[in-house]
User: What shape does this take?
Amino acid sequence: MITELTVKQMAAALAAGEFSAEEAVAAHLQRIETLDAKLNAYITVTAEQALAAARASDARRARGENLSPLDGVPMALKDIICTDGVATTCASRMLEHYLPPYNATCWQRLADAGAVLLGKLNMDEFAMGSSTETSAFGVTRNPHDRERVPGGSSGGSAAAVAADMAVYALGTDTGGSVRQPAHFCGVVGIKPTYGRISRFGVVPYASSLDQVGILAKDCWDAAAVLETIAGQDKMDSTSAPAAVGPYAAACAEDIRGLRIGLVKEFISDAIAPPIRQALQAAAEKLAGLGAEVEEVSLPHSSYALPAYYILATAEASSNLARYDGVRYGLRAEADNLHEMIVATRSLGFGAEVKRRIMLGTYALSSGYYDAYYNKTLQVRTLIKQDYDEVFQAGFSCLLTPTAPTTAFRLGELCDDPLTMYMQDICTVPVNLAGLPALVVPVGQQEGLPIGLQLIGCSFGEEALFAVGTKLECARIRPALA
Assistant: This one.
C-alpha cells in the first residue's frame, strides 16, 4: 500500500513513476477518512491544499527538476505550528478560530522542499500533557489499542504516523512530548539539540525548553527531515549557527568503538520489567556490534522532574499571559476589562492549562521567586553539568528507557496529575540540559510498542542516528481495519 511507505521508499517510487504525488496524497486522504473517526489524530484536514501541492510536485517532476526526497511526500503538523491561512488552535478553545498570517520557519522550509501538508494534528492543549487527553477537540487514541493513549503532547503526530495517515509529522518537545508518544505508538521520534531547529512561528509553552521534533517511520526518514528543517534562522535569536550535519548518511555509519552509557539512575523498580528487559537486550545488541557499553551516573537526575515542573510552569505562566481577550483569540463579553479578561481565560483554557498557569504564577510570585524559580535555575545547571561530565569522558551517547510503562489506558491517570507527570521522568532531564535525544522502537509487550531513548551530546545528532539505526526493529504495525 502507498500509505505504508517510508519517505525513502516513496521518494524512490515517485522518481520511478510508479505512482504520482497526487495519487499518494489521495491515498492518504482516503486513509484519514477511513480511520480518523476512530483515532481523532487530526484537528484540521487540508485536502484541497494538499491535492494542489501534489499536482505542483508532479509538474516539477515532469519538468525534470532536481527534487528533494521530501518533494510530493504527504506529511502533517502538530497544531502548535503556525500555517499561513490554516487554523492553528493549539487544541484550545482560546485559539479555536485563529488563522496565522505567516508560516513557521520549520514548515516553510518543508514547503520550500516540496512537502505536502495533509493537515494539523491533535495535541494536549498548549502542549501541556502526556496523553493527548487535554485537547479541547477530544482525545486521540493509540492505533495499537484504541482504549489507550498515544502519549502526549504530540499524540496526534505519533498516532497519525503509526496509523499510516501521514508519512511523517512534526511535533514539539518541551519535556518528552515527541519522545514519549514515539515510544507509545511504535515510531521514531527525535528531539534535536535546543536551537537546532527554529522556533519562529511555533506557539510557545516554555521558551527555554521547547524544541521542534520529528516523528517518522524509521531513522533515515527522521534524519532526512531534520537535514531539511535544521539550521540558523534570523527570525529566531535562540536558533544556533552550528552547521547542519549529514544526518541521513550517519544512519549507515559503523558504531564499533563507540562508548555508550547505561544510566543507572534510570534503571530502577519504577521502570516496568518488560522495558528494563528491552533495555538490557539493546545493550547486549550494541555490544555485539562492537560498541563499548558501560554504566554511568547522572547523580542529579532525581531533581529533574520537580525542577522541570517549576521552570516549565513559570515560563508557561508568562507566555500565556498574552491570551487576555484583547489582542487575538477568544474574547468573552463582560461589563468591564477585568471581568472580560477573567471570563475569557476561564472559558478559553482547560483544567490542566489553568493548573500549570497557577503553579507557575505561584513560583514567580513575590516571596517565592528566590525559593523556587531561582533555585530551579541552579538545579538545572547541576543537571547539565552531569551530562557534560559524561560526554567529556568520551561517551558518544546514553541509552535509557523513554517512560516507566507502555501506553496506559484512557482516563487512567486523568485524576492523578502527579502520576501523569511521572511519565516524564526519563525525558525531562534532556530538555533541561538542552541536549538531543532519539527514541527508536525496539519491540513490544502484549501488542504495545516499546521504544528506547538515546541521548547525545550537544549537536551530536549524527551519533544518535548511527546507533539508533542499529537498534530499531522492523516496524510494528498496528492492527487496524
Notes: The chain has one domain: 1-481. The two ends are 14 Å apart (CA to CA). The chain has a mean pLDDT of 97.
